């Protein structure tokens, strides 16, 4: 009992500011909020939260239940189904290239910042239906989350604001800059005959007087690098 202790001391957990390298492909560099830069620890925490059922009332669903990766982080249902089995008012939007979004969030733009948007479905009765204070208590009592918040934000005290920042970081990390259309634009591939016909229809204006050359006029609303309006 008097022998020297040979056990190595455990290093304290500290904030890790190692930057996360966003793969932008041929897209321009996005304008990431200066108060929430992407870090490996922050993006990793946000990803864990995104896929964790702890975010829902009965712990049966998570963000990815409706924002499914195989469907561009969106839903194939007309109205996404929430934790109580009830349909919501709209379909879950695709969470891709959010870092380049400059036109508010939700279908009606009611959330100004992505960090504002990501916490609302948790509390919506038709979605994950979990009170924020209950969720924060769950996360605070979890054996791992306080340490993950220290690494991401330098504190073990979990708040709604930090929860929003973590999810914002992960959503901003989901990028698509190497689709077949991106490859077509940079000249590394060609479109099929059907795809080229679709591209022409998409960008050409509607002209009822000349149906043979009339387009579908999609690009007036679906424009820019995100095809958004």
Question: How would you characterize the overall build of this protein?
Answer:
- By secondary structure, the chain is mostly helical.
- It contains 8 helices and no strands.
- The protein starts with 39 loop residues before the first helix and ends in a 26-residue tail after the last helix.
- The model has no long low-confidence stretch (mean pLDDT 93).
Quick recap of the structure?
This protein is mostly helical and 229 residues long. It is 30% helix and 0% strand. It has eight helices and no strands.
Average the pLDDT over all residues and give the rounded result.
93
Residue windows where pLDDT falls under 50 for at least 5 positions: none
Radius of gyration: 22 Å
Treating each run of at least 4 consecutive H or I residues as one helix, how many helices? Answer: 8
Give the % helix: 25-40%
Number of strands: 0
Q: How would a textbook summarize the main sheet?
A: none
Q: Please report which band the strand proportion falls in: under 5%, 5-15%, 15-25%, 25-35%, 35-45% or over 45%.
A: under 5%
Shape: globular
State the distance separating the first and last CA atoms.
72 Å
- The oligomeric status of these chains comes to single chain
Along the chain, the helix and strand elements come as HHHHHHHH
Secondary-structure class: mainly alpha
